[in-house]
Amino acid sequence: MQLNYKVPKLVIESPDGVPVTFWECFEYAFGNNSEKIFSDRFHSINTLNWYLDPVDGGFESFGNRATRTAAGALSRSVVTGFREAAIDLPFMDWLDGQRGFVADLLLDSLDTVEEESINPLNPSYRILEKSWWRRLSESRGFCYGVRPFQISPYAFVSTGIWNKDLLLAMAHMRYHYRHFSEHQFELAMSVPLSRGVSFDVGAAQRLGRDAEATKLVLKLSKQLKGGGIVHVGMEVQKHPTFLVGMSVPL
Questions:
Q1: Which domain holds residue 232?
Q2: Is 75 part of any domain?
Q3: Contact 109, 131 (CB under 8 A)
Q4: Which of 7, 9, 54, 110 has a CA between 20 and 30 Å from the CA of residue 66?
Q5: 3-state class (DSSP) for residue 208
């Protein structure tokens, strides 16, 4: 009797196109996010506002503005790529399986990069901001976290307001803390009016030594068939300012 056997080999292979290593995850996240970030920063409705800015007027200033915007978008893409690659680390996978306040706080603080693009006091159209509202509309829970490494650190909480299966509105609130003596609250709301139409409201109130009156911004956007956008933004103040734009893919 002769017994033949072979030592089995354990080979871990990933499906085609699925990143496994940290660097592969970074490359995938960088390529995926850089396209969104550059599209958001260089959206035609946003670049139109560069011409209307009294500080950066003229073609030369427009080129400088574009260069600064491109540099900011590139650095933002790199940081976002590293953050999303870190989400795929084994420890983060284990943390994702733990349900609780602390686990959700850590995950939402590292992830949810679209949340950082929300600017309640900016009347322009933001692609990433719309992406965040869309993501929030697909979840019925709360999303909360802290951003301690921002220039102006803040904590945030987001949620959708539902009536059974009908989404009434989505709310997002931030609390900025500066030296624990100046406090600023920001509130952003998005109300879906009908198919492709949304009405957004943004407000901010600063308390402390440099207290300011409440600022208010209203935005109305309509998604056209074929990917076009009609956008109207208004900054409510003593002399209101309007931003009206239309974007159509070529």
A1: 114-250
A2: yes
A3: no
A4: 110
A5: coil
With H, G, I as helix, E, B as strand and everything else as coil, classify residue 182. Answer: strand
Torsion sign across C-alpha atoms 192, 193, 194, 198: negative
Q: Are residues 179 and 241 in the same domain?
A: yes
In a domain, 53, yes or no: yes
C-alpha distances in Å from residue 156, one per residue of 34, 37, 40, 90, 116: 24, 21, 22, 26, 10
Query: 0.85 cut: is pTM over it?
Result: no
* pLDDT tens-digit profile, the chain (250 residues): 444 434 344 333 444 555 567 777 778 878 777 888 888 777 777 776 665 555 555 555 666 777 888 888 888 888 887 777 777 666 666 666 666 777 777 777 777 677 888 888 888 888 888 888 888 888 777 888 888 777 778 899 999 988 888 889 999 999 987 766 678 889 999 999 888 899 999 998 887 666 566 788 999 998 888 778 888 888 887 778 888 888 877 6
Last residue of a domain, one of 53, 70, 88: 88
State whether 134 and 236 are in the same domain. Answer: yes
Shared domain check, 120 and 77:
no
Q: Are residues 118 and 80 in the same domain?
A: no
Evaluate whether residue 6 is within a structural domain: no
Q: How far does the chain reach from its first CA to its final CA, in angstroms?
A: 76
Provide the β-strand partners of residue 178. Answer: 182
Q: Which two tokens stand for residue 75?
A: 């650095």
If asked whether residues 75 and 188 sit together in one domain, one would say: no
Instruction: Determine the 3-state secondary structure of 93 from DSSP.
Output: helix
Does any domain span residue 181? yes
